[in-house]
């Protein structure tokens, strides 16, 4: 019997941000309690090609993701096993990755965002932009306005139109600094290699969700911001030491110490309590976890089985 493959079209039909939220949240709690496991990402590169792999156990499933990168284009493949080690299916990874990424930020926003936050900002209106915008609007119930920055005005305008259609006042920002002025929840989604704004441009009460700094040579946030933050939370501290350009640079320049980094899994498991960004700054750094992929893939598999059985 051939192994089923769930393609991006099917995943887009089967899954939504809300449908995978519970599975990802529970997987993080399990990881924090020692009942799940996650590896750091490994990469191999030669002659302009790069291959990456990451794996996790999120009971009752295990699996992971392997992908190739060429000229900034990613080709993902996920694999899913049951708790007996049986191969259940393979899955395309583009839609799955775009869905699971904002869910982690959603959980962070619920835990760290200032109470009654009403101003938001998104820097970067690329492939991750729309779903992060929708997540932000759904997560911050008191959100009244949002600024969008992207060097491509048409991309920023597309997000402005979506926000306005959801009843949120939105406008294009002229610069990243303009976007974050007064913002209490900020999401950065760029491939920047230099900080997007100065540390003193950040509001005195703000949660910064940094999503784009996924390699050591990437940098979205100014190193000095880490010194202003009451908490710096990582989706995986050990992985961040290798991949998080923001924190690698901040540590090199003396504005951050790795021993001060907080594991998100421990927050989710209620082992560590981190204050909200009320009159303070919280930085949440995420490079993405295989745990998210496996948890979301498990939901896709369950919905796929129901669909074909009916």
UniProtKB/TrEMBL annotation:
SUPFAM superfamilies: NAD(P)-binding Rossmann-fold domains. GO terms for cellular component: cytoplasm. Pfam families: OCD_Mu_crystall. This is Unannotated protein. The lineage of its organism: unclassified sequences, metagenomes, ecological metagenomes.
